[in-house]
Design goal:
Number of strands: 5
Largest sheet: 5 strands, mixed
CATH topology: Diaminopimelate Epimerase, Chain A, domain 1
Strand order of the largest sheet: 1-2-3-5-4
Radius of gyration: 14 Å
Helix content: 40-55%
CATH class: Alpha Beta
Strand content: 15-25%
Number of domains: 1
Structural class: alpha+beta
CATH architecture: Roll
Number of helices: 4
Distance between the termini: 22 Å
Order of helices and strands: EHEEHHEEH
């Protein structure tokens, strides 16, 4: 099974696993999705930073439809405390119920692969 995200505790000062995950995403050309956990809620973040410039250009080309997909995913998992910040190159979802956060992160990962027409190797846009 493909790893789709990495989790870390908000109180943790050890970011080695986050750095290792970033490097792995960069090498494999896969979406960089992270989960920051707290007791009751968690945050999910995606950043384009590991993608090649040609993928950034494609994100610009598809524009608002890419952002709209993130918002639909947010609405599926949100509660009254949840918030989002979404742009073409970053998406952050705050205060997601802890028991739903892994499903949300997985869906975000899959959405990015599908919407950007990526294979799971070297950011290949097909």
């Amino acid at each position: 099974m493909t790893q789709k995200f990495v989790k870390y505790a908000a109180v943790s000062r050890n970011i080695d696993n986050i750095n290792a995950w970033f490097r792995l995403c960069q090498i494999n050309g896969t979406p960089y999705v992270i989960i920051k956990t707290r007791m009751k809620y968690a945050d999910v973040r995606w950043d384009h930073i590991n993608f090649l410039p040609e993928i950034d250009n494609y994100i610009d080309k598809i524009g608002q439809s890419f952002v709209d997909g993130f918002i639909l995913i947010f609405k599926k998992y949100a509660n009254k405390k949840s918030e989002y910040i979404v742009g073409g190159r970053v998406a952050e979802f705050k205060n997601i119920d802890i028991e739903l956060v892994e499903s949300m992160a997985s869906e975000i990962y899959d959405y990015i692969l599908e919407k950007l027409c990526l294979t799971e190797s070297k950011n290949k846009h097909v």
